[in-house]
Amino acid sequence: MPLNDPCILVIFGASGDLASRKLIPSMYEMHVMGQLHPSTVILGVSRTQKSDDQWRDEVQLWVAKQVANFDASKWVEFAQRLHYFAGDAAKPDCYPALDARLCEMAESKGTRGNLLFFMSVAENLYEPIVEQIDAAGLVVEGKRWCSVDQSAKSWQRIIVEKPFGHDAVSAASLNRALGRAFEEESIYRIDHYLGKELVQSMLVLRFANTIFEPLWNWQYIDHVQITAAETVSVGQRTAFYDQTGAIRDMIQSHLFQILAFVAMEPPSLYTPENVRAEKIKIIDSISIPTADEVAAHCALGQFAGDGVEGAYNELAGVSPTSTTETFAAIKVHFDNWRWAGTPFYIRSGKKLAAKRTEVVVQFKPPAANLFRKLPGFTGESPNRLVIEIAPKERFNLRFDVKVPGFGLHGANVDMQLDYADRFKTDPVEAYGPLIVDAMRGDQTLFKHRIEVEGAWNAVMPFLDERSAKARAGIHGNYACGSWGPKSADDLLARDGRVWRNEP
Ligand SMILES: NC(=O)c1ccc[n+]([C@@H]2O[C@H](COP(=O)([O-])OP(=O)(O)OC[C@H]3O[C@@H](n4cnc5c(N)ncnc54)[C@H](OP(=O)(O)O)[C@@H]3O)[C@@H](O)[C@H]2O)c1
């Protein structure tokens, strides 16, 4: 893979949680793996005054904590890439000094005027900061933004973190604000789930093999389950979570990305344009339930108290009358030929029985069960592909075999590929490879404007007033350590199906 261009990665929100826990550790990993251009540097920006060295010392603690096999000598090399600038990035008076600092760094480090901005600040600062970046003249795609090395062509790109809007209207507004400053080709809407190995491997499994794709449709697949379950609570940021909930936090963003990879048509070539076009198409073909159908297409819940922590609506920072869901399950249908009649059930929640992100592809039973009078053959389909994305990275394919011995007894068996065992590699933080992709100008694993707005349109019925009936009786409607409210089981039971809740 060609080494990416040198650039200055400008992280707005440098002292925050995301930058400290994920972004800087992931850049350290990329440095150790030789994925950063030798001239690439990182400029952290936040309002708190501190020196380069103070910031380096702060983030070193995080890197040492987050990264397996932390190497102090590699850290010394990497730390030379880290620089810090104190300023309020939402205010115009920050920019003359920031511009001067960027020019000085570009000249001394040889970054050719390439700038990669990363928005790691609160969502309400995205638009003001983008406006200031633009007003300061930092974005002149294809031209020079300061007088360094006039012969070279530079680029300026921006990575935008979720939440990408709060609903369909605010997402469109943010897209317009970004579009006033950056070309769509320069906007990288990041979803770190697309940096996960098994999510990308799903595309290879589907499209590099011939044995799955012919079966990958309504004729052979009964239904698909996509689960992102957490055992943890909502953490300290209760007020933030209460404005968000499981649908916004997980389903509209991360799980719809997985959904798109499972359901989309094969792109003609693995290029950003082709992959993104297919993702846009599949999200656009999600059937939107009518107001009357919403309650029957979803199950929403809030965890009850567990003796250690109160129920969700009893937590400090949460309104006692809050109906924000800490658990959501929705049923998705596609209005297209491939998936007509095959539902996709998507669920996510806090304080559930296990930490797990996975896709279950349940195949239909054979058309005729010739073993129906023999033991071990239930007539239910044994065929199921489970793609475990986290914490384990595994593919499991289940099928029936004959049990050894006299007579014909059937039994389910699983064939498993465990990534850690097979490839002997430790997983890297998903942000790293994605940020490196942005440095290379590869948008394949980033979301397009239309796709984001389409995903919001698809979940709005489960969020706005149409979901009122589904939110009735939500308070404490599931026990901590369970798999969510009874209504989630009912959602599948109505269709004669059950969730895979195996350990
Ligand atoms: N944390 C995660 O795991 C995570 C995951 C997914 C998405 N996100 C999203 O990523 C964004 C950042 O999250 P976070 O958890 O890192 O937030 P955070 O811990 O509150 O950090 C916010 C950062 O922004 C800086 N800041 C605030 N106002 C600023 C301004 N006007 N100019 C420059 N810097 C400013 C703060 O430092 P000063 O006070 O020094 O300015 C701080 O460094 C949010 O939109 C969040 O929703 C976070």
Give a verbal description of the structure:
With 503 residues, the chain is α/β, with parallel strands linked by helices. The chain has two domains: 154 residues, Rossmann fold, CATH 3.40.50; 300 residues, Dihydrodipicolinate Reductase, domain 2, CATH 3.30.360. Helix content is 33%, strand content 17%. It contains 15 helices and 14 strands. Strand 5, helix 6 and strand 6 form a beta-alpha-beta unit. About 2% of the residues have low confidence. The structure holds NADP nicotinamide-adenine-dinucleotide phosphate (NAP). NADP nicotinamide-adenine-dinucleotide phosphate (NAP) binds next to helix 1 and strand 2.
Number of helices: 15
CATH architecture of the largest domain: 2-Layer Sandwich
CATH fold description of the largest domain:
Dihydrodipicolinate Reductase, domain 2
**Mean residue pLDDT:** 94
Q: Any idea of the CATH class of the largest domain?
A: Alpha Beta
| SSE class | alpha/beta
General shape = globular
Number of strands: 14
Bound ions, cofactors and other small molecules, one mention each: NADP nicotinamide-adenine-dinucleotide phosphate
Largest sheet: 8 strands, mixed
**Strand line-up of the largest beta sheet:** 8-9-10-7-11-12-13-14
Spans with pLDDT under 50 lasting ≥5 residues? Answer: 142-149
CATH homology superfamily of the largest domain: Dihydrodipicolinate Reductase, domain 2
Q: Tell me roughly what share of residues is in helical segments.
A: 25-40%
What string, H for helix and E for strand, traces the elements in order? Answer: EHEHHEHEHEHEHEHHHEEEEEEEHHHHH
Rg: 24 Å
